[in-house]
Automatic annotation (TrEMBL):
<protein>
    <submittedName>
        <fullName>Uncharacterized protein</fullName>
    </submittedName>
</protein>
Length: 439
């Protein structure tokens, strides 16, 4: 008689939950991008489905949070997380001031007359438009994914720690993301502020800024007299000295900004823009010059790198395809030159690799256990030869304890932190839905 097959063992409950979490996160990410794209295909269904999806995600996170097992680890990562927020906001402030400076220093007349740089990447896309089928070209032109999608995809990845989809702490990967973002923004600022490049959209500055039409006195002395005269450029090179006088232009408007008055020369305000320096920075937006490298592409690459390392799978491949789609659309719509997108991609990859020490998908506790096992290996062999069961048990216990993190917080502190985190995140979701048009 044929022997009956033994029943296949059921996977552990935790493994089943993790598999469901993987499928759920991939589905949620795809659903978010797909439903948001309905704003172009069917605005009515978009208005119906987007609040439902947001509510489902918020309720799922809130319902899972009380059963999360790593709140002590999250509490330990809270201070670095708050520090990374301060660092990132400081980098954004520095970038905003620099964006306004490079946009205002040359004046509106230069923005309108400076020719864009030749961009072979855009030429290639225009050539492909003539060769590819119309449906493919329309797909390449479609706004499938934008900046806020990448930010939301990362938020979803961070909250997936509640469902054991990625390694705890979730605040750890958020800290790494913001620190990497801040470093990238500072590198970007140092790049575009040192050499001012003409915009790929010459009309941008006139439509966005109320800045003087003439250049700042710095540019009047060091750039304007030599820009269109090759003999003057040779003279500056030979003498290594500027010899032109500042031209006769209208005086600069100088509001009273108290301790922030040092920003007057940098921001070049006009009377019609109001008395607040902060108001000017809010209007800086993405700037009008070519800002090497693309900040939008940096965000998308960091999101893709985070998904690839922490999660993997087919959804990470899809996100990288969306990154490439975003890059060609940035070039196609002349928001950036091709070089800006290329540099942003490899800088983002290298920066994410560089900050691995802040948070990594690799299990640090496993590495500690292996290190401890290697340390007691000889003692374990001797105990096995001597058949000393008690010694073997004690050594294995040492290995196990080496992989555990020390718990230095009371249960009350952990519960208070968990409740505060839940309330904070739900408040952010509500504000995002009520104060923005697209979350």
């Amino acid at each position: 008689m044929a022997r009956a097959k033994a029943p296949r063992p059921k996977p552990p409950r935790s493994a089943t939950r993790r598999l469901l979490g993987f499928c759920g996160l991939s589905f949620a990410a795809a659903a978010y991008v797909g439903i948001d794209y309905l704003r172009y295909l069917s605005p009515t269904w978009h208005e119906r489905l987007q609040p439902v999806l947001w509510a489902a995600l918020a309720l799922a996170a809130a319902g899972r949070a009380p059963f999360y097992r790593h709140w002590d680890t999250e509490l330990r990562a809270a201070l670095p997380f708050l520090g990374s927020i301060v660092f990132m906001l400081s980098a954004f402030l520095c970038e905003a001031i620099s964006v306004r400076f490079v946009s205002a220093v040359m004046g509106l007349q230069w923005h309108g007359s400076a020719a864009p740089l030749p961009d072979t990447g855009q030429w290639l896309l225009l050539a492909l438009n003539e060769k590819l089928p119309g449906s493919v070209v329309n797909l390449l032109r479609a706004h499938v994914i934008t900046l806020h999608h990448y930010l939301m995809l990362f938020m979803m990845l961070g909250f997936s720690v509640l469902f054991d989809c990625i390694k705890a702490p979730g605040l750890g990967i958020a800290t790494r993301y913001m620190v990497t973002m801040a470093i990238g923004r500072l590198l970007r600022t140092a790049t575009f502020i040192t050499t001012i490049l003409p915009s790929a959209r010459p009309w941008c500055a006139a439509g966005r800024y109320q800045i003087p039409g003439h250049p700042h006195p710095w540019a009047q002395k060091y750039y304007v007299p030599y820009a269109s005269d090759s003999h003057a450029i040779r003279g500056v090179i030979d003498n290594d000295m500027a010899y032109a006088d500042v031209q006769s232009y209208p005086g600069e408007h100088r509001p009273d900004w108290a301790r922030m008055s040092f920003l007057v020369d940098i921001l070049r305000p006009t009377p019609g823009e109001g008395p607040s320096w902060y108001h000017l920075l809010k209007k800086a937006s993405g700037g009008c010059n070519d800002l090497m490298f693309s900040g939008h592409m940096l965000v998308s690459v960091l999101t893709a790198m985070a998904w690839t390392e922490a999660y993997g799978g087919w959804i990470s491949v899809a996100i990288w395809l969306l990154v490439l789609h975003s890059a060609q659309r940035e070039i196609r719509e002349r928001h950036h030159y091709t070089v800006d997108c290329v540099v942003a991609i490899y800088v983002g990859i290298l920066l994410w690799r560089m900050t691995r020490s802040i948070w990594s998908a690799r299990d640090a506790s496993r590495a500690r256990r292996l290190a401890k096992l290697e340390e007691v290996q000889s003692r374990l062999f001797h105990a096995a030869k001597d058949s000393d069961i008690d010694e073997i048990r004690d050594l294995l216990k040492e290995v196990e304890l080496a992989g555990r993190e020390k718990k230095g917080f009371s249960q009350r502190a952990i519960l208070a932190f968990a409740a505060a985190t839940i309330m904070f995140t739900l408040t952010c979701v509500v504000l995002a839905l009520t104060l923005t048009s697209d979350g």
